[in-house]
Amino acid sequence: MRIRRRSGTEKVITILVVGPHAALLEGVVQTLVGAGQQVVVATDIPEAIETLGGARPMVALVHRDELVNSGTMFRLSLAEGGALLAFHTEDEESGLPFSLRRATLAELNLPLERHRLLALVHFVVTRAEASGRDSSQRESAGDTSIGLDGSAG
Question: At 147, is the secondary structure helix, strand, or coil?
């Protein structure tokens, strides 16, 4: 899924949100869209891969259990300079396995840390723009894949 700008150039989807809690995801999406972000939502990783159809998000916000249950076979292609964020709810256990902690920028407690989420998304997008990774460069630069063992490839 690609989003066209007015000038006709393609822009990478800013944020992919993956998780099982429909009400929580709706609130997170409203927060992100209200902040001017473009968001794609999926309930699990296979659906996310299918929905993206080859597009590479700048930020992937994925539920902790989905990351843990996916095992090390899961590889998420992010836009160059992108980041993987994990989240859990306040009534769920926190703490990621070491391999996941190395692969993620942060683990958030949602919905309590919505402002932190916005700050992290802003940081990642601003960092990519400041380093000269605009949408046309991202499209031609190739995938930045992050394995759950923290390796890039």
Answer: strand
Q: What Cα–Cα distance (Å) separates residue 19 from each residue in 117, 127, 130?
A: 15, 26, 30
Strands 83-88 and 106-109: parallel
| Residue 103 near residue 146, CB atoms below 8 Å | yes
For range 119-124, the mean pLDDT: 95
Find the mean pLDDT for residues 19-42: 94
The Cα-based distances of 14 to 57, 92, 96 in angstroms read 5, 27, 24
The Cα 113–Cα 66 span in angstroms is 19
> Please, are residues 5 and 30 in contact by the beta-carbon 8 Å criterion?
no
The pTM score is 0.78
